[in-house]
Amino acid sequence: MVLMKELKPNNMFSKIFSKKSAWVLVLLCVQVNAQSMIDFPIVSGTKQTSLHIDKNDAEVVQITAQMLIDDIHKVTDKKIRLGGTSKFRIIAGTLGKSKAIDNLVKQKKIDVSAIKGKWETYHIQVLENPSKDIEKALVIVGSDRRATAYGLLEISRKIGVSPWEWWADSAPVKKENVVLSIENKTYGSPSVKYRGLFLNDEDWGLQRWAALNFEPETGDIGPKTYAKVFELLLRLRANTIWPAMHKCTKAFYHYPKNKEVADAYAIVVGSSHAEPMLCNINAEWDHESMGEYRYDTNATSIKDLFRKRAKETQNYEGIYTVGMRGEHDSPMIVGEDNTGAQVDLLEQVITDQREILNRYSKKGVSKPQAFVPYKEVLHYYQSGLELPEDITLVWTDDNYGYIRQLSNPQEQTRSGGAGVYYHTSYWGRPHDYLWLNSTNPVLMWEEMSKAYGFKSRDLWILNCGDIKPHEYNIELFLDMAWNMGDFEKNNAVEVHHQQWATREFGKENAAAITKIMNDYYKLAFQRRPEFMGWSQVEPVTKAGKTELTQFHYGDEVMGRIKAYEALLIKVKGLQPRISKAQQDAFYELVYYPVAGASLLNQKWLYAYKNQFVADQGSKSTSYFANNSKEAFQTIQVETEYYNTKLKGGKWNHIMTMAPRHLPVFSQPSVSAVPESETASLGLALESYQMEVNNEVINSYADVLPVFNAYTKNTYYIDVFLKGKGTISWEAKPIADWIRISKISGKLNEDHPENRLWVTIDWDRVPKGENKKEAPLGHDYQLIPPSYKVNSAIGFVANGEKTTIGVSVFNPKFKALENYKGFVEDKGFVSMNAENFTRKKKGTEADWETFEGIGYSNKVCLALPRTAASHKNLSDIIANSPSLEYDFYTFNFGEANVNVQAIPTHAFYGGRGVRCALAIDDAEPVLVDFQTLGRSDEWKQNVLKNASVKSAKQIIDKAGKHTLKIWMVDPGVMLDQVLIDLGGWKDSYAFPPETKM
């Protein structure tokens, strides 16, 4: 009926058909569409359904068949039979391995032309009366063993079982009957051939949990744990594992059962950049018996280890990492300390490895090889290392989410193809992030989309640390690898998250959860929780001084506190709305990550507030200290609950609140102030580090920053208690156009501080002079008196009066009537990149706006990435796409144009990360965001997720101007712009936009 109501036949339609016949046609169309979906009862009343597989099919098919039976039982509390003579049957099998499937093909009852010979491709359809004893058959046919397994678990998805049913305790909604509407559909082949996870830095969770809780009989990550990991991979349609490899864990091949379990689950075993030939050097290299681990002097012993591993894995699927690095994720040791010698030796290593693999290759078992140009190995590759073209190039990110290099057009034709090794967890400099999943999913999508576009489609590996709490990003990563076609548009991640949240917690909660997680990732993008101590590692340094300002631009520290407190309130408010069955999953997937990030931020931010106000002698010093301590203690409580109470202790030892016991995870030191017997009122104003001092005549800290009529500023005044006792205060604006959020109050030890917000009622302020332009000088402080209106606020407490000056800049310029652009405020113009006035398309490219990333949560991205870079200024001006920003200044002279971009890297050699800019008709100036290696600039960029570059420009007069930004290289992502005429004070982020 909905379709009938919404359909409105047009005039031509009406002329050809009567209204009645038109609706008949509509109904016929609906009926035809409905016939493509056929209902099949999984569990329905008295109808008995059974599952049929061939006993000779692969072991993974037997395993996933039982998983499906168990999943049906979890949903319905009923078990379907494996085998039997029921009239409703699920028939699953692999082409050439299942007699029942092969017979259906022979009888032409199913068409397998779309899957035959394809990689991991499966087909699902319902057959009506396929034989005299079967009324309906739900047929699942796979092109290979994994495809059949994925097909069986597709039915689990359809009945409502989450891939995280065990790993995140996601309980399916109970149903008495399950009848599926099945579409005749082919799934696959996957976008990426090999897709999987790297279990890395397992010391702090996975290994301890396995050894002490889940698999104590092994005392390690062993076959029982890996079976559960492989089950998750199959549910997520993945096929590859890079096993745990730190010294705390014995090597994967130390336990013979591990490789057998991997083969049973049809999981391909690979190894990281530091583990050549599936060998775990950390755990398997014994210096006493094998000698030094260096190929130039001890190649024989090293090749013996390679041969041993190649021989014992010749009957199993594996991806062999070729090349070599040193021990413990370090560079390879060679006798000659020059790049040429290192390249030559590495080429010899690869030659020897390939000879070994050829010797121990079994017919029918593929032996794909991968080369991972990670850290110094990329330098060797860029320096001319010759790599056989059938080896897969596995490009890496810089450990912080930005891919360092991708295949150039020539490399994209290699028969071995390319892949990506990507991090959402990392141990190393400039700082670890091993606790929470803080990688923005939109950033991951953008980088992996870029990689896919440059033909990196053969191997995708995600370093997810301990799996928990990386659940969502793991699923997103593997869903992209399965079908990148679902992720072509920028809003794909939000759509995916909504679907994920709907599946896990119901449609009624999906939007709220998605909004909470979007806010969580936005805050983490500005600075990850693990980086809030402003310390670094390698070597480990003590906690440092925050770069967040506490007295400019509304107080960045308090702004971040409020944002995280609001996020925690939201997630706590949502918790009671989650069904009882899904409370554990909600805690693991949403609550603990959000609470952990919020509390760790509050712990440090309140400590920074404590240190700041201690210098003012404020009683709120102890208030902020207590808040910091309380946040630290609450993290302890929540983590203890996660480990010991959640799910009856199922996850005991999986979660630590202090990986590697770094300073950021400790309780910050706090300050105290000497006690004073006399209570008095303290005042601190925005823009001043020190408090108001009545004893200093004409103190510069007793005047608020100038209020600008064109930006409608808001500034704060902190009123705080000094000394013991209670004090009442009152604020009296002298002018009727001054507005204060609170005009009186009482301060005591429980409530030692109030923050007042001062605004202006602009309808009441007297206008300044009527001028066409503002003939002001270069110094933004030198505002002529004729443009300013001065007044004050009087504060009274204990009979003492303090006057705070208030000045407004309120001229009436004809040029600004109905003006919609940006304006100067306090000596700068601030703008978000996406809020351009105009944009102009280039001959090959254009600027597009992407949401969900950046400090403003939107960026401007130059696309397509395949567009040519521009070579010279005339080419840039004539052919490059541009963004234009209209702005108005009240001053003139030299200005620094600061452009903030997402710190991505050039796609490959010969490209940069460049744009060009100019104010008005000046000659464009090139700006390049590319960093080299692991420089100090790169370290600061990745800690901040921002790269800021500056270019000097001349503003020749006060008045209207236009900033133009041109693309030079595609792929540049612009975040924010700040034109500084000398007024910008220190701040972590650019000040808020100064827009009319």
UniProtKB/TrEMBL annotation:
InterPro entries: GH115, GH115_C, GH115_sf, Hex-like_dom2. Signal peptide: none annotated. The keyword Transmembrane helix does not apply. GO terms for molecular function: hydrolase activity. It comes from the Bacteria. Residues 821-993 form the Gylcosyl hydrolase 115 C-terminal domain. One of its GO terms (biological process) is carbohydrate metabolic process. Gene3D superfamilies: 1.20.58.2150, 2.60.120.1620, Chitobiase/beta-hexosaminidase domain 2-like, Glycosyl hydrolase family 115. Pfam families: GH115_C, Glyco_hydro_115. Keywords: Hydrolase. PANTHER family: GYLCOSYL HYDROLASE 115 C-TERMINAL DOMAIN-CONTAINING PROTEIN, PTHR37842. This is Gylcosyl hydrolase 115 C-terminal domain-containing protein. The lineage of its organism: Bacteria, Pseudomonadati, Bacteroidota, Flavobacteriia, Flavobacteriales.
